[in-house]
Write a structure and sequence with these properties.
The complex is a heterodimer of chains A (113) and B (119). Chain A has 113 residues and is mainly beta. Chain A is built from no helices and ten strands. Chain A has a five-stranded antiparallel sheet, with no helix packed on it. A five-stranded mixed sheet of chain A has the order 2-10-9-4-5, with no helix packed on it. Chain B is an all-beta fold and 119 residues long. In chain B, strands 2, 4, 5, 6, 9, 10 and 11 form a seven-stranded mixed sheet that branches. In chain B, strands 1-3-8-7 form a four-stranded antiparallel sheet, with no helix packed on it. Chain B contains no helices and eleven strands. The radius of gyration of chain B is 14 Å and the shape is globular. Classes of the chains: A mainly beta (113), B mainly beta (119).
Chain lengths: 113, 119
């Protein structure tokens, strides 16, 4: 099965700085790479995703980059704001079957005002 | 609210009791997933339904756990003879049907979860 690791486990940045969160995975069959954000006591919500035929995708202040050869993908957040403080999960997935998500342990991002 | 809903939001039960949770997915979403999340961990897959058919069950799903989706709409997850190790947040997610490859969305929409505490 898929082995997913996220680094670092916690990250603290100053408001306005950039944050980069990395996810490594083991299953070369994975072809869909989402990032979910979970605020304290709330449900996970998709913030950005990328497919294996694309190397980078951007949506306003967030972007995701994929390196399939090295089996890792990263979440980039620019101009961080206090409301970006949350736990971020990567969940690399193979969409050919049931598309169940295999989540990493998550990274807690704290944005200091 | 047209999102995924779950009921109850919280459940406290004594060890050995049976509990049942309900999930109402987004209408017209034929794919439904159950996950379990413990403190400090990511959600772990439990089981998957496509319409009314249960197509995959995780090894995590012991024989005390059973899930149904009788009419392909709402789903229930029952835990029999609860144990303290069952204490967790139980999350339901739904996803729309697949169409042409380039148009597919694989996003899973999560419900608010049912927090189970077994005393």
């Amino acid at each position: 099965g898929e082995n997913v690791e996220q680094h670092p486990s916690t990250l603290s940045v100053q408001e306005g700085d950039s944050a980069v969160i990395k996810c490594t995975y083991s299953d070369s069959a994975s072809n869909y790479f989402p990032w979910y954000k979970q605020e304290l006591g709330k449900r996970p919500q998709l913030i950005i995703d990328i497919r294996s035929n694309v190397g980078e995708k951007k949506d306003q202040r967030i972007a995701v980059t994929l390196n399939k050869t090295a089996k890792h993908f990263s979440l980039h957040i620019t101009e961080t704001q206090p409301e970006d403080s949350a736990v971020y999960f990567c969940a690399p997935t193979w969409t050919g079957a049931n598309s169940k998500l295999t989540f990493g342990k998550g990274i807690t991002l704290s944005v200091r005002p | 609210d047209t999102g995924v809903s779950q009921d109850p939001r919280h459940k406290i039960t004594k060890r050995g009791q049976n509990v049942t949770f309900r999930c109402d997915p987004i209408s017209e979403h034929n794919r439904l997933y159950w996950y379990r999340q413990t403190l400090g961990q990511g959600p772990e897959f439990l089981t998957y339904f496509q319409n009314e058919a249960q197509l995959e069950k995780s090894r995590l799903l012991s024989d005390r756990f059973s899930a149904e989706r009788p009419k392909g709409s709402f789903s229930t997850l029952e835990i029999q003879r609860t144990e303290q190790g069952d204490s967790a947040m139980y999350l339901c997610a739904s996803s729309p049907p697949r169409g042409r490859l380039a148009e597919n969305t694989y996003e899973q929409y999560f419900g608010p979860g049912t927090r189970l505490t077994v005393t």
